[in-house]
Amino acid sequence: MEIFKQIAPLRSFLGELKKSGKTIGLVPTMGALHQGHISLIEASKSQNSVTVASIYINPTQFNNPRDLQKYPKTPEKDVEMLRKVGCDVVFCPDDEEMYEDAPLLKLDFGSLDKVMEGKFRPGHFSGVALVVSKLFNIVEPDSAYFGQKDWQQYAVIRRLVTELKFSFKLYSVPILREPDGLAMSSRNLRLTGSQRTNAIVFYQAIAMAKESLKKGKSLETVKKAVSDKVNETPEMRLEYFELADSKNLNILDGVDKTASPILCIAGYAGEVRLIDNMFLD
């Protein structure tokens, strides 16, 4: 496994591989890897000659400096996990390599980045799109892989790829869950024992909501039930629960059979922010 910290030698290395006909898969990560990330590596390995994983905690997507400071960092463990799964290349730049100067570029995605995560984390998706654009430009992959757990992020990146005419294929890989249902997340490392136990309420709430909506209950009734379930659980607090069209993230006021609905939830376990989602069908 090759490890690069600088852009120029990585580009040179990948350029030689491409000349020999190798296809490149890219898996962007912020480290603190878990089996969900490994599933992305495995998806890339199954479809490409070479898999590149990036490990970079991107400061421009954090609207809360404290959240950036506390984001879990496990670089040695991450590299070992990638080595074991057979990742071919790791790119782990520092801030100076990715941002020579304070960035001026802002990206706007219309309604896509104004609802849900965008509403509560203003500027987040501009930062995500900026760093992902850099990685796409540096690696020039044939395919790129993202997790379904961050569905709104995937929708934004999908739009970015379309708007900027990137020529590679974009894939969303299904959520991996812990045995009790909690969506795997790097942020789970920050949970205390009791918070970890209680955090499954987010999964339980959207599973309950899905079942209720499919039985014909009103969205208003379901939203109340979700709010009560989460907020009545110790140390848990609901930030939002929405039913949205997974294609354009338009917020729905009821089950729309012409849409492709997705249930999205976000909230706090103590001070740790967690998200999850589930397709209605």
**Rg measurement, Å:** 19 Å
**H/E topology pattern:** EHEHEHHEHHHEHEHHHEEE
CATH class of the largest domain, please?
Answer: Alpha Beta
The total number of structural domains is 2
Give the number of DSSP strands: 9
Give the overall shape, derived from the CA principal axes. globular
Binned strand content: 15-25%
CATH second-level architecture of the largest domain: 3-Layer(aba) Sandwich
Largest sheet: 6 strands, parallel
**Treating each run of at least 4 consecutive H or I residues as one helix, how many helices?**
11
The CATH homologous superfamily of the largest domain: HUPs
Percent of residues in helices comes to: 40-55%
Within the CATH hierarchy, at the fold level, what is the topology of the largest domain? Rossmann fold
Q: How would you write the strand order of the largest sheet?
A: 1-4-3-2-5-6
Which structural category do the helix and sheet elements fall into?
alpha/beta
Nearest-integer average pLDDT? 97
Low-confidence stretches: none
N- and C-termini, Cα separation: 40 Å
